[in-house]
From TrEMBL:
Keywords: Hydrolase, Membrane, Metal-binding, Transmembrane, Transmembrane helix. GO terms for cellular component: membrane. This is Calcineurin-like phosphoesterase domain-containing protein. The chain crosses the membrane at residues 43-65, 77-97, 142-163. One of its GO terms (molecular function) is metal ion binding. Residues 188-370 form the Calcineurin-like phosphoesterase domain. PANTHER family: PHOSPHODIESTERASE YAEI (PTHR31302:SF31), TRANSMEMBRANE PROTEIN WITH METALLOPHOSPHOESTERASE DOMAIN-RELATED (PTHR31302). It comes from the Bacteria. It comes from Flexibacter flexilis DSM 6793.
Length: 432
């Protein structure tokens, strides 16, 4: 019985808030006439209906009533739900601000009336003052119109982030100066991809275009720093014939990210989960990528060597797994004057690399996606993810050691990007 009462109270509260927010729309269009006013008012209730429908779809899919929806379908439905929800919240806030203003103004006028009685002269002046014209906008109407415009921003911004930002690939070129770099490797061009998340893609042509952008840079070697899929190896099947075009003269080398282990979904058995990981590793092989699982290789030019170390996921933040063994991967690289590390999670750098492996010159990571949301200009960079990760996008240097965090090629959850765009990185290694 108590649950029924609570449910009824929640439903009643939602209905009241929806009606309350609608008052802002009514005030905003009160001077409109014709179809425009009708469309806006009816459109509001259409959004309310869609909010309920999307919530039902999310719930029924989650409990398995509607079966397994595709990753991109779930993401789009969830994005639409939260976009509409934010729109409603903004409308409620502006309705509240408008009402608080009116109550305050009314109270002030009452107090003013108690304190002073208007004189005859003041009354005559007030009567002689022309009435406000029909073009005058009241403060309540101004707040309502402002609220209506502001509340539309979440939906508009999210829509733009999906249609434009999701595949608006940007090439970031970065010179890295290394004092011990052999002259044979001076000018070496290194390409980096990270966080492909193939299960989220919805535009195969755009993805192919991103790969072509990387190849047009003509890198000598290419590194992939993890998260090929969201959860399941089968997600990459439709994209193998795109990513197998990623080739370079000195090879393509890759590592696993936290999502590649499929830790975030329920499996029927440990064996099924193990097979999924094996299938994912096989996908790397099919694409011609050399997967480095706690191991290293040497790049050689005229008898000079450069070590490339690759480890499994190793995270120091939140509950991200520590599968990697850097001591194992590093062993045997002592002879290389320069060592490059591929490690998915940038928190690994401060937590272990800088403390225990001073001879690792450059670590390349991804993982953060720049949260797929933020502001980035030539002189300013901000994203909410920076409050969790000290290093979250771009180049960081401490002494002679460098860390580069790729913003990611794909996307997860929200099927788009706002401000922080998908990245293709091209390094030029230079002797300092």
């Amino acid at each position: 019985m108590n649950r029924i009462v609570i449910l009824l109270l929640v439903v009643a509260s939602v209905i009241f808030l929806d009606w309350y927010a609608y008052q802002t729309i009514k005030v905003a269009v009160q001077n409109w006439t014709g179809v425009g006013r009708l469309v806006v008012q009816r459109g509001y209730w259409v959004l309310s209906a869609l909010l309920i429908v999307f919530l039902a779809l999310i719930t029924l899919t989650r409990v398995g009533v509607l079966g397994q929806a595709s990753e991109i379908t779930r993401n789009i439905v969830a994005t639409a739900f939260f976009g509409i929800l934010l729109t409603k919240i903004f409308l409620v806030l502006f309705s509240a601000i408008s009402d608080v203003w009116r109550v305050t103004q009314y109270a002030f006028e009452m107090v003013q009336g108690w304190i002073s009685t208007p004189t005859k002269a003041a009354t005559d002046v007030a009567e002689a003052t022309p009435a406000a014209t029909d073009n005058t906008i009241t403060r309540s109407e101004f707040l309502a119109k402002t609220g209506a415009v502001v509340s539309a921003m979440p939906l508009v911004t999210m829509g733009y982030g999906i249609l434009s930002g999701a595949h608006d690939y940007r090439v970031h070129r970065q010179k890295i100066y290394l004092p011990n770099l052999p002259k044979e490797f001076h000018g070496l061009r290194v390409g980096q991809l990270s966080d492909i998340h193939s299960g989220s893609f919805f535009n195969k042509t755009a993805v192919k275009g991103g790969v072509e952008m990387l190849l047009n840079e003509k890198p000598d070697v290419i590194f992939f720093t993890g998260d090929l899929v969201n959860n399941y190896a089968k997600e990459v099947e439709d994209y193998i014939r795109i990513f197998d075009k990623v080739k370079a003269p000195l090879g393509v080398y890759s590592v696993l990210g936290n999502h590649d282990y499929s830790d975030y979904v329920a499996w029927d058995s440990a064996e099924a989960k193990r097979r999924n990981l094996q299938d994912l590793m096989h996908a790397h092989k099919l694409m011609g990528w050399h997967l480095l699982n706690d191991e290293h290789i040497f790049l050689e030019q005229n008898k000079e060597k450069l070590a490339v170390i690759g480890i499994q996921n190793w995270g120091a933040k939140g509950n991200f797994p520590k599968y990697g063994n850097l001591h194992k991967a590093h062993a045997g690289t002592e002879e290389a004057p320069v060592k490059l590390l591929l490690s998915h999670d940038p928190s690994h750098w401060d937590a272990q690399v800088r403390k225990e492996f001073k001879d690792i010159d450059l670590m390349m990571a991804g993982h953060t996606h720049g949260m797929q949301f933020g502001i980035e200009t030539e002189f300013f960079k901000w994203s909410p993810v920076q409050y969790m990760y000290k290093q979250w996008a771009g180049l960081y240097t401490e002494g002679n050691q460098h860390l580069y965090v790729n913003r990611g090629f794909g996307y997860l959850g929200f099927p788009g990007r706002i401000g922080i765009l998908p990245e293709i990185t091209v390094f030029e290694l230079c002797k300092a």
